[in-house]
Amino acid sequence: MEVKNVGLRKAALISDDDEFFRLALSSLLTARLGFSDVIETETFDGAVDALSNRSDVEIALFDLNMPGMNNWQNLRTVRDCFPEVRVAVVSGSKARSDILMALSIGLHGYISKGLGVSELARALQAICDGAVYLPSFLPDLPITENEMFAPPEPETQPSEPMGALDDLTSRQREVLEMLVNGMSNKAIARALDLSEGTVKFHLSAVFRILRASNRVEAATSGSRLLGRTRAPG
User: Fold this and answer.
1) Does the first or last residue of the chain, that is N or C, have fewer Cβ atoms within 10 Å of its Cβ?
2) Chain segment 196-232, per-residue pLDDT in tens
3) Cα distance between the two ends of the chain
4) Where do the structural domains in the chain lie, given as residue ranges?
């Protein structure tokens, strides 16, 4: 069944470093789904800036393989901080683990880039209409040993997970460094030329990745982690 334009929607966001794919997807969103505006970014940080400064975004689509998309916690934080936005992955990956992870963190869909135009339009329409879209080939993907014999989650986790700094985007690391230096949200926003809403998002992501429950814990952990990476002066 063909997807028909049933009325003008507000704005959509595409975050993908493939310019040609963004162009094709943007055309589909406007011509077939009736979006009045499509915001395009090529980095995760750019997407966060857009979401923080626009209140009219209905759907946000993220590629997994682009600058800043180095941790699933970032997409989980998008869901938490922008609950009114339908968030989905549009990726070339057909890995079962990626699809199940997207589902487990509460995303509204996982769309394969290999879909034809009509099926892609139907997938996007389903997500916009409130459904959770998963690829039809998911049941045919083999179950990995890691899924069958996954170890139980530890009862306690280290307060500073190894490699935590590598899981931060460049912008999140800047925010963490300023937090460690005692700067307020307003001062961080002014220094980085961001809105306070964007700073709050990045802090939420930092808290989650560092497993901190407040600014003091994040600053304490950040100070130790950043100290480990600095060469002695």
Assistant:
1) C
2) 889 999 999 899 889 899 999 999 999 988 885 544 4
3) 66
4) 9-140, 164-228
Q: What is the pLDDT of residues 51-66, one digit of tens each?
A: 998 999 999 999 998 8
Segment 32-40 shows an average pLDDT of: 95
Instruction: Look up residue 32 and give its amino acid.
Output: R
DSSP 154: P
Q: Which of 223, 198, 233, 34 is nearest to 121 (CA)?
A: 34
Cα–Cα distance measured from residue 159 to residue 13, given in angstroms and rounded to the nearest whole number: 34
Would you say 201 and 77 are in contact if contact means Cβ atoms under 8 Å apart?
A: yes
Class of domain 164-228: mainly alpha
Helices (H) and strands (E) in the chain, counts: 10, 5
Q: Is the pLDDT score of 2 beyond 50?
A: no
